[in-house]
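Hi there,

I know you've been waiting on this one. I reran it after we fixed the sequence typo, so this is the corrected version. Both the input and the resulting structure follow.
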Amino acid sequence: MIDRSAFISAQNDPAFGDEGWLTFYLCGPLDRHESMKAGLVALNAINLSGAEYGFVYAKVPVRLCQVEIQRLIEQVHGLATEAGVEIAVIDLDASADVARSKFYNVWQAPPS
């Protein structure tokens, strides 16, 4: 499911250490975002506000390990599917700081 070349680039990038952040670009109505919020909080997600415009850019900490990244993506995908929220893009970020973080796109929804 993830772009292996993006993962390898992150592993080789000095901006990353042993950990990173998966940023999920979630889109859907506010009530649907709210219904998956508890599941995201249980995964230590941050940046869960802003759904009033239909988008939330949830950031979840993750070890820089392909198996763990895939497992975490599957967990969030399950939460999103249950809530009726779409995942548009998934980035792997070096930092939780949006303005200064180096990132690699690891997955993007196919065009509709």
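Quick highlight: The first strand starts at residue 19 and ends at 27.

Best,
R. S.
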